[in-house]
Amino acid sequence: MPGRAVDAARPAQPSPPVQRICFQLQVLPERADEYRARHRDVWPEMRDALRHAGWRNYSLFLSPDGLLIGYLETEDFEAAQAAMQRTAVNERWQTEMEPFFGTRPDTALEPIEEIFHLD
Amino acid sequence: MPGRAVDAARPAQPSPPVQRICFQLQVLPERADEYRARHRDVWPEMRDALRHAGWRNYSLFLSPDGLLIGYLETEDFEAAQAAMQRTAVNERWQTEMEPFFGTRPDTALEPIEEIFHLD
Question: Nearest residue of A to residue B35 by CA position?
């Protein structure tokens, strides 16, 4: 197909649309160091659960004063959250994270509006 | 090389390492709506300049109270910032954005520490 020659570098099948999700939470400042340390060693089964639930390219960023910012990509954030809610490992993890926030973090995630994007 | 068979799905050449950069700034709350509107229509030459300077997968997220969060991927953030500083279009854009912050936003970007990542 000569008409396609210029597109040779592109994949033949377009990828499904991706939602880029950003959220912020406040970690209790006096517990920020411990929260950081816990995230050096997230349980492998928690990482697997997130992956299977469709959380992709997921990062957490933590400022010294405890502002926590999350960024992830997924096909359907509502479904990705619901899938995590159905796992036992998430229940255990969130219970351990609650004291860092004073509330259960996974039920407090409010996506922030994306106002600009450049691929 | 039979030992590599399990890696067949991976690219033969590893991609260069990517820095994932997150920053936050405060938009004056009374100007947040106008800031959002301006980003629906970022100048094409500004988008091109960012792309050529190595800013990839770059998103801005804005909360109703003016918290602005930026996320991008790049090979070298310092170099990517310096490359933008050398462009005339960035000078024009930043001058127009300054009143939304009360300071020039591009010289106020402080990357926040990434404490967790899942591909």
Answer: A115
Catalytic status, residue B117: no
User: Alpha helices, DSSP H only, in B19-87?
Assistant: 32-38, 44-52, 77-85
- The pTM is what? 0.87
Residue pLDDT, tens place only, A54-105: 999 999 999 999 999 999 999 999 999 999 999 999 999 999 999 999 988 8
The predicted-structure confidence for B70-113, as pLDDT tens digits, reads as follows 999 999 999 999 999 999 999 999 999 999 999 888 888 899 99
Q: Cβ B115–A36 below 8 Å, yes or no?
A: yes
The one-letter code for the residue type at B28 is L
Is residue B119 helix, strand or coil?
coil
Q: Which domains, ranges and CATH numbers included, belong to chain B?
A: 24-109 (3.30.70.100)
User: Taking an 8 Å Cβ-Cβ cutoff, which residues of chain B contact chain A?
Assistant: 20, 22, 24, 35-36, 39-40, 42, 47, 50-51, 55-63, 67, 69, 71, 112-119
